[in-house]
# Entry
Amino acid sequence: MRKLAFVLLAVVLLTACGTPENQVNLTELKSQMDNAATEAQKALLGHVSSAIEKGGTEYAVEFCNLKALAITDSLSEQYGYSISRITDRNRNPENGLETETEKLIFEQFKENNELTDSLFIVNNQMHYYKRINAGMQACIKCHGNPETDIEPATLAKIKTLYPDDRAIGYALNDFRGLWKIIKEQNND
Ligand code: HEC
# Structure
């Protein structure tokens, strides 16, 4: 908690002490990062929807396995930010919470449904986090109750591709994870 309070304070101080231009830049940066998260969400959703249409959810799991990280990587290049998804109960081992600070930030989102997004300074970098909820019925077909929501063939495919999967058991609109957008220092 103390660490998070410190991080929050750092953001507040930066805003308070900054020149007017800096303040505007911070607001602008946040809205640009928000935009990148929204576009990334749209891109993934578009791809997964067309994969489901093409070959059903089982095929779409395979598609996500092959392409999800490639899609976020190419968006990272396009936007000049590092763009990824993180969560406490991850499917892809790459998408876990990495540091104690990140765990604290994640807890804040978990405890407060109203918290949509937030900008932090972590290790001198701007980190923007934005809530991802399992807001559509489609999410539940791959992240819901394994007995009632996920088709057996889809579940089998998930277990084959992700033997350590922890991303099941979510209900509609549950908090599922965060977009994590980082502005590298040298990318002005
Ligand atoms: C067709 C099955 C499928 C559907 C539908 C689906 N997901 Fe996923 N989801 C996956 C797979 C597979 C992964 C792992 C992707 C990878 O390997 O990078 C994943 C990963 C994620 C992650 C990254 C964290 C992690 O656990 O690795 C989040 C967040 C996520 N999904 C949220 C959602 C949301 C929200 C929806 C609904 C809008 C949704 N998913 C719909 C299959 C699906």
